[in-house]
């Protein structure tokens, strides 16, 4: 059959439910996207849903995640990130959706949201759905709405793509269980990194209400792994694990506090990711930074860098910060800071060092460290080779030797080293939070 | 003896050149496609593509190192300058000293090819996200403008994603398209392709997506440089969210009762010589 008649054939064969879109859905989409955008998590990684007959989509090809666009703020857009509703009974001071805020309220119906997801997915706009919600009536009722939507997507629309769902603190464990069987990833947002912060700014939430579902998801994940070993077709519970988000800069916790909390979450709750969200002043409140305060983007950036060091580079929180150094140096990245504080560790000879040691060199990443290991089996490496292996020499050159030699013509001492590293990094940094004083008045 | 070869531009043609150079004991200083012929001081010859010769070279490469064979196949899809010569030198080195040098990425023969292939993989990865489909008469269609020939590497991903659908991806740069329907996929050259305008339903989803895209950005964090680093401007041309107003207006044929208006225009062109597909469904 020639391809030219395909459209006609398919038009006859393909019958999918049609929903008449009015301006209404467009309005709802604007409001409920706007209300969801402060959630940082937008990844589709860790999924392993291969195609199923009669279903649409998969997540297996995006083990490393797949960005479908980047918004004007440069952040990855991979999921349809919306709220089920922005109606909320809580009054968290930092949140745009708090009860006392005068804003337009609306809610998607499960049908509207399922239709949007499936049609965005077919057009390759998105990798799946990220569904969160304000607390409407009570946590259980809200979760039931979300479950209804996911069930519609998975069962009626036979959607096999990625779904990330928020578990609402305070909801019944049975509902968390149901949600986990429908979603790829679950998350519970901690938001404020300390209990005192919660008491002050989110009086309706408690540490316990947040940690209970996190613990449940964790133990259910472990149990599910055992089930899957025994029965290959056991239903999967949140196969892409769980994540959380911390708001940075709304409350006075320092980097050390946040990093220790992060380490604890990775160790004790086996989280896949901890996300940081620089606080954007959305409301005027005496307990919060003023509206003219810029979001602490550089601080957020340093925390993400440190987070990577914890997850992929074998660093521990206490190596990066301690009681004397409670915050990251804004001028250089955490790995460089660590290297500067441990001069006895360097230089590292790339032809001999093991993988863990290579990873400690600033400018050497997971990929380049592996390439070094592979390449040096063919013969000794020289500094000229390293750049081609992906080592960022402008940083790494101060910390390594290749076949006993440093890069040609390199002159530095401990004092100029810091200065050089700052100069290297400056052009690629986010805008500094404190504006530099200008000599010339505008 | 140093020579310049011409060939027909196909991978088999390129492999035939390699076969010929060994058979005739000639060292190549350049390999050009027929249409790129330039006057040269060296002796030239046009190599006729020989499927049998090509197979023998490929089998030999796979025998030496399957990963090297894959690298060479992928290298041929890249937009690297003088890719034929770089790949030829890689083959010569492989046959001469075996595959152990492939471990060393900084090897001077391997490095240009590996870099080009990495660029190809990078482009494929980005396009998996940036490709935008339009639904026209039940078929999903899209256009891209890649630097490398990415279609063979996009095939598996999109066939798995839209297994029960029919779709095509048209590559404007290389004037070829990937077609998929009923579990079968083919890549065919196509001249002069024009995408049909959207119907009402399609225009509506485009508009919804544009609205979502505009709403999701946080104004206080605006960062055009970061966006451009992550998503180079050359991709914007074919992405829904960056099109002007006319892209979101339906052509004046209202959707019929079933919601499937077959648009005037040709979502799938008729000229597809030798293209046989099994029935979908």
Give a written overview of the molecule:
The complex is a heterodimer of chains A (442) and B (281). Chain A is α/β, with parallel strands linked by helices. Chain A is 39% helix and 9% strand. Chain A has 16 helices and 10 strands. In chain A, helix 8 links the parallel strand 7 and strand 8. Chain B has 281 residues and is α/β, with parallel strands linked by helices. In chain B, 38% of the residues lie in helices and 15% in strands. Chain B contains 8 helices and 8 strands, in the order E-H-E-E-H-H-H-H-E-E-H-E-E-E-H-H. The interface between A and B is large, with 78 and 80 residues.
Keywords:
heterodimer, A: 442 residues, alpha/beta, TIM Barrel, six-stranded parallel β-sheet, two-stranded antiparallel ribbon, 39% helix, disordered N terminus, B: 281 residues, 3 domains, five-stranded mixed β-sheet, 8 helices, 8 strands, 15% strand, disordered C terminus
* Biggest protein-protein contact in the assembly: A-B, 78 and 80 residues
CATH class of the largest domain in chain A: Alpha Beta
Distance between the termini of chain B: 57 Å
CATH architecture title of the largest domain in chain A = Alpha-Beta Barrel
Could you tell me the mean pLDDT of chain A?
87
> What is the succession of H and E elements of chain B?
EHEEHHHHEEHEEEHH
Please trace the helix and strand order of chain A, writing H or E for each element: HHEEEHEHEHEHHEHEHHHEHHHHEH
Distance between the terminal alpha carbons of chain A, to the nearest Å? 71 Å
Integer average pLDDT of chain B:
88
Query: Helicity level of chain B, as a percent range?
Result: 25-40%
Structure annotation, total helices of chain A: 16
Most strands sheet of chain A? 6 strands, parallel
The count of domains of chain B is: 3
Strand content of chain B: 15-25%
The CATH superfamily label of the largest domain in chain A reads Aldolase class I
């Amino acid at each position: 059959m020639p391809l030219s008649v395909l459209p006609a054939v398919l038009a006859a064969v393909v019958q999918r439910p049609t929903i008449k879109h009015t301006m209404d859905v467009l309005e709802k989409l604007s409001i409920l996207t706007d209300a969801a955008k402060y959630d940082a998590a937008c990844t589709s990684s860790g999924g392993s849903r291969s195609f199923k007959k009669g279903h649409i989509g998969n997540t297996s090809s995006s083990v490393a995640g797949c960005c479908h666009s980047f918004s004007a703020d440069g952040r990855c857009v991979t999921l349809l990130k919306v709220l089920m509703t922005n109606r909320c009974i809580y009054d968290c001071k930092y949140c745009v959706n708090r009860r006392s805020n005068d804003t337009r309220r609306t809610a998607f119906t499960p049908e509207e949201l399922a239709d949007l997801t499936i049609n965005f997915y077919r057009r390759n706009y998105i990798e799946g759905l990220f569904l969160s919600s304000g607390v409407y009536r009570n946590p259980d009722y809200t979760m039931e709405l979300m479950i209804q939507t996911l069930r519609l997507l998975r069962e009626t629309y036979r959607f096999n793509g990625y779904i990330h769902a928020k578990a609402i603190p305070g909801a019944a464990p049975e509902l968390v269980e149901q949600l986990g069987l429908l979603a790829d990833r679950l998350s519970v947002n901690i938001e404020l990194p300390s209990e005192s912060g919660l008491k002050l700014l989110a009086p309706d939430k408690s540490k316990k209400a947040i940690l209970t579902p996190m613990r449940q998801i964790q133990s259910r994940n472990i149990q599910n792994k055992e089930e899957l070993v025994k029965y290959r077709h056991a239903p999967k519970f949140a196969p892409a694990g769980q994540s959380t988000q911390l708001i940075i800069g709304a409350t006075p916790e320092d980097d050390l506090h946040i990093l220790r909390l992060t380490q604890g979450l990775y160790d004790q709750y086996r989280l896949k990711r901890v996300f940081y969200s620089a606080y954007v002043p959305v409301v005027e409140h005496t307990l919060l930074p003023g509206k003219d305060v810029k979001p602490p983007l550089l601080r957020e950036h340093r925390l993400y860098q440190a987070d990577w060091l914890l997850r992929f580079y074998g660093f521990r929180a206490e190596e990066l910060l301690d009681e004397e150094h409670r915050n990251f140096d804004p001028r250089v990245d955490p790995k460089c800071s660590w290297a500067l504080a441990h001069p006895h560790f360097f230089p590292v000879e790339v032809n001999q060092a093991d993988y863990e040691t290579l990873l400690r060199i600033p400018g050497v990443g997971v990929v380049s460290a592996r390439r070094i290991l592979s390449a040096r089996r063919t013969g000794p490496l020289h500094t000229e080779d390293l750049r081609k292996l992906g080592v960022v020499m402008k940083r790494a050159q101060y910390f390594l030797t290749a076949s006993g030699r440093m890069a040609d013509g390199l002159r530095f001492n401990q004092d100029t080293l810091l200065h050089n590293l700052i100069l290297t990094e400056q052009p690629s940094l986010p805008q500094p939070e404190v504006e530099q004083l200008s000599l010339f008045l505008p | 003896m140093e020579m310049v070869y011409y060939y027909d531009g196909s991978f088999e043609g390129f492999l035939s050149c390699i076969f010929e150079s060994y058979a005739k004991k000639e060292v190549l200083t350049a390999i050009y496609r027929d249409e790129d012929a330039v006057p040269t001081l060296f002796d030239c010859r046009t190599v006729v593509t020989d499927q049998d010769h090509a197979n023998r070279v490929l089998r030999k490469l796979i025998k030496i190192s399957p990963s090297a064979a894959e690298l060479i196949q992928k290298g041929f899809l890249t937009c690297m300058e003088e890719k034929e010569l770089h790949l030829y030198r890689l083959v010569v080195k492989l046959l001469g000293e075996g595959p152990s040098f492939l471990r060393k990425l900084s090897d001077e023969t391997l490095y240009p090819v590996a870099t080009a292939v990495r660029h190809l993989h990078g482009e494929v990865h980005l396009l998996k996200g940036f490709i935008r489909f339009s639904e026209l008469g039940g078929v999903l269609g899209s256009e891209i403008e890649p630097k490398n020939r990415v279609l063979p590497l996009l095939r598996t991903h999109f066939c798995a994603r839209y297994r029960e659908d029919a779709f095509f991806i048209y590559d404007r740069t290389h004037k070829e398209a990937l077609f998929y329907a009923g579990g079968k996929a083919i890549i065919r050259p196509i001249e002069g392709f024009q995408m049909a305008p959207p119907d009402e339903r399609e225009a509506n989803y485009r508009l919804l997506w544009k609205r979502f895209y505009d709403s999701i950005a946080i104004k206080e964090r605006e960062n055009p440089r970061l966006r451009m680093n992550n998503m180079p401007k050359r991709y914007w041309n074919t992405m829904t969210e960056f099109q002007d107003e006319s892209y979101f207006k339906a052509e004046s044929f209202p959707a019929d009762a079933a919601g499937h208006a077959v648009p005037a225009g040709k979502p799938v062109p008729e000229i597809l010589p030798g293209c046989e597909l099994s029935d979908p469904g």
